[in-house]
Amino acid sequence: MRPIYCVLLLLVLAGCDKNEVGDVSLGVFTTKDIKLDAIVDPVVTGVTCHVSSIEANLDFADPSDSAIACRQTGDITAQMIAQIDKSNSGEVLFTKSKSIFFKSMKIRRIFDAENQTLMYVSYSTKETSGSFKHSLSTVPLWGTKAYDATKLQQ
């Protein structure tokens, strides 16, 4: 195989992501795209989060901005809620590298017991322009099997 074909194949494979559900080009004269990922919560499998972030194909680092929207897409049960980390810092569900210099985007789930709500925050691990970029989405348990069971325990 010719060396140029090997390089092209590696570039194509490097761009593959099993969570990617969309790719929006920002134009002909830019190497940046908006990547759309779908992430199913590994414990609360009735929640799917869609995350958008910029990828700069030929740069050493991607921009830190991201947006997240999470929705109930299936059953949420009391057994699922019983298994999650209920600490104030919650738990990391997903990590995606955004730079060769140790910057990543993470998605963390935090349970708000008082309001019976799952919070999902997408954030950058490196400060950019004086800010850690982040985005928040919530999934209320109201109307789910988990809501009735947890309300009875209070």
> Helices and strands: which structural class?
alpha+beta
Overall shape: it is: elongated
Going across the major beta sheet, what is the strand order?
1-2-3-4
**Strand-residue fraction?**
35-45%
Order of helices and strands: HEEEEHEEEEH
Regions with little confidence, pLDDT below 50 for 5+ residues: 3-15
β-strand number: 8
Helix content: 10-25%
Give the termini distance in whole angstroms: 66 Å
Q: How many separate domains?
A: 1
Mean pLDDT, rounded to whole units? 79
Over the alpha carbons, how many angstroms does the gyration radius reach?
18 Å
Main pleated-sheet profile? 4 strands, antiparallel
Counting H and I runs of at least 4 residues, what is the number of helices? Answer: 3
Structure commentary:
There is one protein chain. The protein has 154 residues and is an alpha+beta fold. The protein has one domain. Helix content is 18%, strand content 41%. A 4-stranded antiparallel β-sheet has the order 1-2-3-4, with no helix packed on it. Strands 5-6-7-8 form a 4-stranded antiparallel β-sheet, with no helix packed on it. The longest helix is centred in the first third of the chain and has 12 residues. The N and C termini lie far apart (66 Å). The relative contact order is 0.16. The N terminus is likely disordered.
